[in-house]
Every structure is written in C-alpha cells, then in structure tokens.
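Researcher: Hi, I'm a grad student and pretty new to this. My advisor asked me to get structures for two proteins we've been looking at. I'm not sure of the right format, so I'll just paste the first sequence and hope you can take it from there.
Model: That works fine. Here's the first sequence with its structure tokens right after it:
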Amino acid sequence: MARVAPTPDAHGAGIRLATIVGAADPAAGRRLGDMVRKSATPAEPAVLLVISLGGGLGALLRYAIGVWWPAQPRSIPWSTLVINVLGCFAIGILMVLITEVWVAHRFLRPFLGVGVLGGFTTFSTYALEVRRLFESGAALEALGYLGGSVVTGLAAVVLGMSMARWATGTARRK
C-alpha cells in the first residue's frame, strides 16, 4: 500500500496529498517514492462541481433523517447529535484513508469530506437548537447538548481514525 505525506496546502484549506513516501508497489514492480500526487485546487470549476454534488447528497440525507426523526420541544435534538457524531466518525476514517493509506483521486476529499460530510453535518442547526433549548427553559438539556456534542464529536473522530488505522494495518506505533 502506498502512503502519502500530508502537507498544508497553499490556500489554507487543509491537507494536500504530497510526495508518496517510500512505499513499495509490488503490483507495478517499483518504488513509489518519486511520484507526486497533485491535489485539487479549491477554485477549480471541477472541484466546485464535485463539492456541490457531494454537498447536495449530504444535505438531502441530513434532511431525510431530520424528517424521519424530528427534534422534540425541550428535549435534546438526538437526530442532529447523531448526524454530527456520525459525520465526525466518517471524517476520521476518511482522513486516515486518504492521507495515510491511499493515493486518493484528487476529487475524493472535496466530494466526500467537504461535500457529502459538510452537507450532512450541521453546526448551524446545532447552534440554533442550543439557543432554542435555552429559550424554552431547558438550560440543563442545552448545556448537556452543547458540551456533549463537542465531546462525542471529538471522540468519534479519534475512534474513526483508530478503527481505520487498525483495519488497514497502519496503526501508529509509540
């Protein structure tokens, strides 16, 4: 399996896929150390298209879950919490796969990471729901949801990353 070295991109938009570091490719009978993978440039029209398509899919999925599992008044909005935690888990898996395991297609991260997962997860709804809980007098629920979302989201990213590393045999050694 080839591994890539993540490096900050010039636009500050995250991690680029850079030089592939020292992994052997037995199928091709060569080392991959000299190959360079070009990542997508944020303003490129094709990148904007794949982000838009992915965002539309993610938003439709989030909307469908919200209709199927609506938030109840004065109660923690479980559907939004689950959506955001699942998105965090998925981004943890995705980032390990595309930065440590695969030489990903240049549109994979914009489509899945920015588009699908960006459209699926929702910080704005989370913030609005916290405000609504406070306004309805459910301060304890609001505080629990406010802190619980952050803690479970971060835990989901770490769990997703750990599981992806374990499943691909790339677990980091201490």
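Researcher: Oh nice, that was easy. Here's the second one.
Model: And its structure:
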Amino acid sequence: MKPWLSQEYDQLFQQIHQQEARVISFTGASPQCGSSTMCYWLARRCAEDNNKVLLIDLDLSGSGQGNHATDWETNGSGEMGAIIHKTSQLDILPPPKNQETTMALRQPQTLLNTIQRWQQTYHYIIFDAGTVSAANWRNLPAANICHASDAAILCIAAAKTTESEVLTSIDRLKQGGVNLLGCIVNDQHNPSLACEILRILDTKASWLPKKIKIGITHYLNQNSMLQGKYQ
C-alpha cells in the first residue's frame, strides 16, 4: 500500500505544481494529528516524479519523522553525515541536536539563506514544522517556518482536533503572513462505516433475528473497504 500514490495526494501535488511551490511546510492544528506522516507521504509523492526532495524534520516538540537528533549547522557543517537517504530521490534531515542551530534557524534571514543553499541541490524542500501551538524557546515556531515557505498545509485530526484549535491555528498562520494552501483532514480517529453500522445494529435493531445480526456483523468485519482499510 502506497498512500502517497492515492488520488488525494495526486490532487495535492497538482495544486503545489500549479502554484510553482518548491518549499512546502506541513504543520498540525493539534498534537498527534498525523502531520508528520502526511508530510512524509507528500515527500514520497514529490520524489515519484524523479525530483530530488529534502525533508527537514523540525518537529522538535513531537516525534516528527522518528529519527534521533543529530549535529548539523545552518552553514552545512555536519549535514552530509546527518542526512538519511530514504530513497534514491528522497533525503531526510533529522532535527538539529545543537541548540545553537535551533536558535540560528529562528533568525528569518538565516533560515532563508539555508533554504536557498538547500535549493541548489534539491528541487523540493519540505518542512515537518510540528504543531502551530507548540511555541516555546526550545522549539521553532511553526508559523515562522511556514512564512519562509512558498506554501503551507495545515493538518487536522477528525474527531480529535477541536474547532477552537483549528481557528486559532489558522489565525496564527494568517498573522504570520503564511500562504496557506489548504487543510488535510486525517480520518484515522473517525469511526469507520462498518463501526457505525455495527453501532446502529446494537442500539436500534433489536428487532432483527440474532442469526441475521451475526451474518451482517461477520460481513462488516471482513469487508476491508467498509473498515476503512483502503488498498
């Protein structure tokens, strides 16, 4: 299963292509909303067209791409040893271990200069920027990273991210002068259609014979599409 080859990611890639965006940021409206996974899938989709892609993990408050922080600096020192070659076209740069690097990336001009240096090697630069609300001295403000990008994408977790978190995140990004390309809704925490049908069977279909209920339940549990397990 390659979710980055789905129709949804094709549409997203086309939007990025139409806007001629080469530097893209992914940020989440709430913690653990799946923005890092969505970010990785976009990086894989961009790399499918034989474009060199660099995915930079700047999610310092969450799990990010799941790699240990390494020593690298904005001038390129230590970068070659830190980069993880995921595929022939996709490289991942883990979060910086050195606090001086984090502080340097807080400087707008330093961040822009570093992006320009990366663009000499890579066609697409994709930032895993973490959560919009994660703002303290140890983290890089997601709005700042998004502002330095050509486009930003906000990730929302259905049935988990609150309306208040969504509106607050959008306001912060707008105040930061961010070009918000759109929002992606992560349906992982939403009940599947099969679960909803089973819930109705249990609560409102007491009149159905037990044998029929067992047959319907078995069918729903075996149907991958109704379970939300797309191939």
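Researcher: Is there anything I should tell my advisor about the second?
Model: You could mention this: The chain has a mean pLDDT of 89.
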